[in-house]
Specification:
It is a single chain. The protein is an alpha/beta fold and 188 residues long. It has one domain: 3-Layer(aba) Sandwich (Rossmann fold), CATH 3.40.50.300. The chain is 54% helix and 12% strand. The chain is built from ten helices and five strands; from the N terminus they run H-E-H-E-H-H-H-E-H-E-H-H-E-H-H. The protein has a five-stranded parallel beta sheet. The structure holds adenosine-5'-triphosphate, (3R,4S,5R)-3,4,5-trihydroxycyclohex-1-ENE-1-carboxylic acid (SKM) and magnesium ion (MG). The site of (3R,4S,5R)-3,4,5-trihydroxycyclohex-1-ENE-1-carboxylic acid has 9 residues, from loops. The site of (3R,4S,5R)-3,4,5-trihydroxycyclohex-1-ENE-1-carboxylic acid (SKM) has 9 residues, from loops.
Length: 188
């Protein structure tokens, strides 16, 4: 790892936000390795704790119950440092979650709907995408959430089919632009 990134980050957590399929889980794991952090995924923690897949939680307990579990997990993880955290696509929806996210550096993976659709066309694990018209569903979710995702500290625009490794390189190169020191971040 580049020693200057380590000095700059000072253990501050990296939160990946963005739409389902934007690559938070895939890229988060690689980004953690790149900056020598541990990796966690709020969706995975919820699935392990509940003992059932997210689609089952949505069906049996409903989306509000899932959102509460998500906030509980986020509240717990933000107490730790040196983490790269892949969040669920809807983490931005609750105002209280932002107070946790702002403990760290928030990175938005901004991926066009066409690419999301291509990645997720065979997917059955995302309950909100089990819709007769997944493209319109993704568009309306993105419209609803766009201004929320925009509140991230760092916007990573993915405009073409780039590899996860290229995206990680872009993120690592962009971090110094938004995080000169942790003090500056807290003053923004
Ligand atoms: N360049 C890429 N970057 C990231 N993911 C990619 C890329 N190309 C293809 N994928 C694939 O896209 C799919 C969705 O990625 P991933 O599960 O990481 O998204 P996510 O943002 O964590 O979604 P969710 O919010 O539903 O958890 C995966 O199957 C992943 O392998
Ligand atoms: O975008 C969303 O609302 C979701 C994304 C996934 O990460 C999961 O958290 C769940 O499928 C809901
Ligand atoms: Mg994920």
């Amino acid at each position: 790892m580049d020693a200057s990134i380590k000095q700059l980050l000072k253990g501050v957590n990296l939160y990946l936000i963005g739409m389902m399929g934007s690559g938070k889980t895939t890229i988060g794991s690689l980004l953690a390795q790149a900056v020598n952090y541990s990796f966690i995924d709020t969706d995975e923690i919820i699935v392990k704790a509940a003992g059932k897949p997210i689609s089952d939680i949505f069906t049996t307990e409903g989306e509000p119950a899932f959102r509460q579990l998500e906030s509980n997990v986020l509240a717990q993880v933000c107490a730790y440092t040196k983490l790269t955290i892949a969040t669920g696509g809807g983490i931005v929806l609750r105002r209280e979650n932002w107070s946790y996210l702002h403990h760290g550096l928030i990175i938005w993976l901004n991926v066009p709907v066409e690419i999301l659709l291509e990645r997720l066309k065979e997917d059955q694990t995302r309950p909100l995408l089990q819709d007769p018209d997944p493209q319109s569903k993704l568009r309306s979710l993105l419209d609803e959430r766009y201004s929320l995702y925009s509140q991230a500290d760092l916007h990573i625009e993915i405009t073409q089919q780039e590899t996860p490794e290229q995206t990680v390189t872009n993120i690592v190169q962009a971090i110094p632009r938004v995080l000169k020191t942790p003090v500056e971040k807290s003053q923004n």
